[in-house]
Specification:
By secondary structure, the protein is mostly helical. The chain is 71% helix and 0% strand. It is built from 20 helices and no strands. It starts with a helix and ends in an 8-residue tail after the last helix. The chain is globular and about 60 Å long. The chain has one domain.
């Protein structure tokens, strides 16, 4: 067998493993997303010449996604240059931009796209197993996976929702129940993490599942989503799970905040949001600087504008407010583009109703999930959140674009 034939067979096989390992390892192992980033970087270097020569062909339909991540990096760099440049300040935006190379690599190597679903099944079920072991075996208060409770719970929920998009792939096989099991596993992992801010995402993400059900899903998918909501509701009545305590604490903490006590989970968030908004109002164009949120909060504390209890925090626990506070309208615009560009791309992919539609639905669900999770957390300040979003969006966009080329759809098609 000649070297050229070996290379042709190796390329799709290698990247099939990459798109399999992304969801399989993301939250079940700590170095998971880092391994995927390294593999994509090496592949980018190896395929640099063909990727550059055929950049319009490979990135034509996804150019706005690439531009969105490029603008985000430019905004982060400008924020640091205007104050005090620290390389670590652009680490996540730079990694996100590099992740978009996966789009061109997938189109060039044509891996087995269905391997993404297999990895997603392993990742969600694995997350549930880890969560159960940590909560009931190690008696941890909240399951954290390999990271922290909020990030673990939010990403597990997003992966569970994405699993419903794989129903078409498994429907006529003996594994037809697997997507539903994976979905409920993601919900369970999130439940045991105690990440209450992510639980309503089930209802939020039912919208695309409902509207695109006739073409890509079936009634069982909606039923599974309702079962997930029922699982969360039922867990409220099981004291050992701890859901009732987390939910009951909401009204208590809000009441305490209204009485002037901000020293609670919700109270701290409300006070940080107030502080972030004040910082944005004072610096509406550029914000206080990408690395200066902590100092900005403490300056407000010194002036008596917010409660001293939030002086320890380094982000606003709200993605948009944090972007506005640290990078002003420039940062807010960059964040908005990170959401809107892939959202529009995946919506177009869903409407085509081709073989790429399930992957487009999965992409839409991960974007919607991150928008919702971003109301109570700054996921892009954490490596796992930032990397998972960029890698998953890029991989799914690459799969959709590759299928479009296979069907002969022009790259610029809308």
């Amino acid at each position: 067998m000649s070297n050229s034939i070996i290379k042709q067979e190796f390329r799709p096989q290698f990247f099939s493993w990459v798109i399999f390992l992304l969801p399989a390892l993301a939250i079940t192992t700590r170095p998971g997303v880092g391994i995927i980033e390294i593999l994509i970087l090496l592949a980018t270097i190896y395929y640099a010449v063909p990727l550059w020569k055929q950049r319009k062909e490979f990135f034509g339909s996804t150019k706005f996604i690439v531009l969105a991540f490029s603008f985000n990096l430019a905004a982060a760099t400008a924020s640091l240059l205007s104050d005090k440049f620290v390389v670590s300040g652009i680490d996540n935006p730079l990694r996100q931009l590099l992740a978009t190379a996966a789009i061109g690599i997938i189109i060039f190597t044509r891996p087995k796209a269905e391997w993404f679903w297999h990895g997603l099944m392993i990742g969600t079920i694995g997350a549930a197993c880890i969560a159960m072991y940590q909560r009931f075996g190690l008696h941890m208060v909240r399951a954290e996976g390999a990271y922290m409770a909020i990030m673990f719970g939010d990403i597990a929920m997003a992966m569970g929702l994405m699993a419903l998009a794989s129903v078409r792939h498994y429907s006529k096989t003996k594994w037809a129940a697997l997507p539903y099991i994976a979905f409920l596993s993601g919900v369970l992992a999130s439940l045991l993490s105690g990440t209450r801010g992510g639980w309503p995402a089930i209802l939020f993400c039912l919208i695309p599942l409902y509207f695109y059900r006739p073409a890509a899903l079936d009634r069982k998918s909606l039923l599974a989503a309702l079962m997930g909501a029922a699982l969360l509701t039922g867990a409220f009545f099981i004291p050992k799970v701890g859901v009732s305590e987390r939910v009951a604490a909401v009204s208590t903490e809000i009441d305490q905040y209204m009485r002037g006590n901000a020293n609670s989970s919700i109270g701290s968030r409300l006070e940080m949001w107030k502080g972030a908004w004040n910082l944005f109002v004072e610096n509406p164009i550029t914000g206080v600087g990408r690395k200066n949120f902590h100092q900005g909060l403490n300056a407000l504390i010194a002036r008596g504008e917010i409660d001293p209890s939030v002086g320890i925090y380094r982000h606003a626990h709200n993605e948009m407010l944090h972007a506005l506070a640290t990078q002003g309208m420039i940062g807010g615009s960059a964040l908005l583009l990170l959401y809107v560009a892939p959202l529009l791309f995946f919506l177009r992919g869903i409407r085509r109703n081709d073989q790429g539609q399930p992957y487009a639905i999965a992409g839409l669900l991960v974007v919607l999930s991150f928008i919702y999770f971003g109301q109570t957390q700054v996921l892009f300040s954490h490596h796992i959140g930032s990397a998972f979003y960029a890698l998953t969006v890029s991989v799914l966009a690459g799969v959709c674009a590759s299928i479009q080329r296979e069907y002969g759809i022009p790259p610029s098609s809308k």
